[in-house]
Design a protein that fits this description.
Elements (H helix, E strand, L loop, with lengths): L3 E5 L6 H13 L4 E4 L10 H7 L9 E4 L2 E4 L1 H11 L10 H16 L2 H6 L9 H10 L1 H21 L10 H15 L6 H12 L1 H11 L17
Parallel strand pairs: 1-2
Antiparallel strand pairs: 1-3, 3-4
Helix pairs in contact: 1-3, 1-8, 1-10, 4-8
The structure holds glutathione.
Glutathione binds next to helix 1.
Length: about 230
Amino acid sequence: MSALKLYIGNKNYSSWSMRPWVLMTQAGIPFEEVMVRFDSFGPDSHFKATVGAINPAGTVPVLVDGDLAVWDTMAIAEYLAERFPERALWPRDAAARARARSISAEMHAGFTALRSHCTMNIEADLREVGQRLVAEQAGVRSDLQRIGSMWSECLAAHGGPMLFGEFSIADAFYAPVATRIRTYGLPVPEAAQAYIDRLLALPGVRAWIDQALSEHDFVAFDEPYRTSRG
Ligand SMILES: N[C@@H](CCC(=O)N[C@@H](CS)C(=O)NCC(=O)O)C(=O)O
């Protein structure tokens, strides 16, 4: 078996990169990380030259396995689930697996208000901004409501500690949502808040957060609410 390589962006900002990195780290799948720092994303940028050479879509994350490059977080998660069946990255029960796929796909395709107004920024404290967004943005409120009720239902159905009992791809997909809720101090039900605390304390998630905190880049286009790092 060849060594897996995962191309990612800045840990403070790249929510899509966080998902497979956390998934592999938490599941104990060894890989080599290749960090491509965010820049202008312009056609002549270092980011596009590096990432575009392996992924024609020009985005991170990209998983490289020998001659094969897999891009897009959902495709990467599915590839890993097939390549490492013993790790049970999806729940083993067929109905739970279908449900885990549904909510992961819902995350992958949706929650556009939350994603556009509350861009991931692990190091920042944007609770005041969050309060304003919750008051002014109906889309953020309805995304939060859906996430809170989805998590509460999954936790009640499977008994926790993670959404489907044991850690799965679904938890990796929602890890960046959990960091956003914390950064922006967004209101969620008690059971959802307790899940966030458990999720952010997992060693694989904690490791990503610690490394995000030790980065020093300030990427202006990912910083609609600040002019420098705090
Ligand atoms: N649907 C893609 C989205 C990936 C994505 O947009 N990644 C961002 C970084 S978080 C990126 O590479 N942006 C570069 C660009 O937009 O040019 C996935 O699930 O992986």
